[in-house]
Amino acid sequence: MSVRISASGGAAAAIIAVASAAILSTLLVSVEGNGYGSTSNFDYKEALTKSIIFLEAQRSGKLPPNSRLSWRGDSALDDGKLAHVDLAGGYYDAGDNVKYGLPMAFTITMLSWGAIFYRSQIEAAGELLHVHDAIRWGTDYFLKATSGRNRLYVQVGDPLLDHQCWVRPENMQTPRTVYKIDENEPGTEIAAETSAALAAASIVFRYVDHQYSRNLLNKAKRLFKFAKTYKGTYDGECPFYCSFSGYHDELQWAATWLYIATRNSTYRNYILEESVDATVGEFSWDLKYAGSQILLTQLHFEGDRDFDDYKKLADSFVCSILPESPYNQIQITPGGLIYLRDGANTQYVTSTAFLFSVYSDLLAQYRQQVTCDNQNFGSGPLMAFAKQQMDYLLGKNPEQRSYMVGFGKNPPTQAHHRGSSVPVLPQEQVVSCAYSFIDWFAKDAPNPNELTGAIVGGPDRNDYFEDHRSNGPMMEPTTYINTPAVGVLAKLASQAH
Ligand SMILES: *[C@@H]1O[C@H](CO)[C@@H](O)[C@H](O)[C@H]1NC(C)=O
Question: Quick check: helix, strand or coil at residue 154?
Fold first, then answer.
């Protein structure tokens, strides 16, 4: 049985009050990025290209002719039929074949943010069209999922039954149960995150496909209204994607993206009246305050005095993580990797690297510094930390191996991923679920299909790692581990020449 720990086990614990941080903080020995291996730079452009290819492996639905992975085919074409709607398309979140709304939306929001902020770097690397395609694969699906008023389809596939079969999506026969939220059964986190994704994507496509962009923005506005009118936490994606942090962060995040996309005072007022002064040391599919705080700090840098206070909050995120900060609170492995919890830990590595990279660029552009007690940090230390985190993933670490499939030295070969670990079979072949675990899951051999570009869950708190498919926490990739990496890798690629 596949073990999957994607849900964050208590994000509330990551909400840190700066006042107590000062008392509690212990200075950790920081390992700067010069400890392991002789290489100090990687081929970031290659890593960027591959990180986007991974998203093609996660596509559900009818694949277009320009798909780059020969081992992937059409799958789940009848999704939605059980509810008499068309829900073909979208993304599988990780190594199984379920389509979960919350992580899928966060994936698209992050990819869109990267595509907006690092547009020129992604374009210079020749990847802008691929990134746009990847975003559109998500937003096309969200347009289908939002076809009804005050209704959002949030999941396809029964996770318990899905997890009882180790089968590639092309051959699955497990039930494609359809889940939705509406006025009677609300789901504020998912509705607001989907609104954020659509608002952010509308900015990406504004000058690329104006009509499409307008459609996305209209849906984003309606979803935000739905999310804030019918409040409630949806637990239908538990235990895999249970929101521990509540929905205030998603509402603030959605309002922030809607304000940036529209400059309409409705969203501005919502932020000023309803936002929570949370100081956090985590940014993830469950907890979005830090992302919103950095975006609002950008508006403050651009001259909006009403958002002045967000800089302190954005700073507190940095201060709680940067090893040199007197307020640092976050566990770092002896080899230098951010370590928040077991299972898909690298999601916190890439999301933090992305925020540090973006904030570093903003500090440089507006000649600003982060203040942590009596210490100031400029753009340089933030980018150095983001680079060190990415370099660890790409090979500069105690195990001297890459954590991205198909990239660098000694990369993972046994990703915990059905499509990659099961050989290509004829479409009509019926698979025995019982034998699937014996034949393919338990086979101690490299996956037959390379899951190019996937960043796996990664090493444990002591930098130890084993390349075994059965180790879900270390070996499972997810879309939201990879997408924050896209922007940072584009930035690092642009610095390399
Ligand atoms: C701003 O958004 C609100 C809510 O969607 C809408 O009623 C209003 O007309 C918008 N204002 C402008 C100036 O577009």
Answer: strand
Average pLDDT over residues 51-64: 98
Active-site hit among 84, 416, 417, 468? 416
62-102: per-residue pLDDT in tens? 999 999 999 999 999 999 999 999 999 999 999 999 999 99
Ligand 1 touching residue 221 (CB < 6 A): yes
**Angstrom distance (rounded) from CA 440 to CA 444:** 9
- pTM across the whole model: 0.93
pLDDT digits (tens, 9 = 90+) for 420-456: 999 999 988 889 999 999 999 999 999 999 999 999 9
Known catalytic membership, residue 210: no
Q: Does ligand 1 lie within 6 Å of residue 266's CB atom?
A: yes
Spacing, Cα 266 to ligand 1 middle (Å)? 7
Residue bearing the CA closest to ligand 1, atom 3: 266
Residue with tokens 């307020």: 327
Q: Tell me, what CATH number does 260's domain have?
A: 1.50.10.10
Taking Cα atoms as reference points, which of 214, 224, 80, 45 lies closest to residue 157? 80
- Omega before 448 cis (within 30°)? no
Q: Which residues form the domain of 203?
A: 3-495
CA pair distance 316, 301, nearest whole angstrom: 17
Ligand 1 proximity of 264 Cβ (cutoff 6 Å) = yes
Beta pairing partners, 372: 375
| Separation CA 11–CA 103 (nearest Å) | 15
Cα gap 47→45, rounded to integer Å: 5
Q: Residue 95 and residue 108: Cα distance in Å, rounded?
A: 18
How many structural domains are present in the chain?
1
Confidence of residue 242 (pLDDT cuts 50, 70, 90): confident
List, as one string, the DSSP characters of 423-472.
Answer: ----TT----HHHHIIIIIS--S--SS--TT-B-S---TTS-----TT-H
Task: Report the atom number in ligand 1 closest to the C-alpha of 264.
Answer: 1
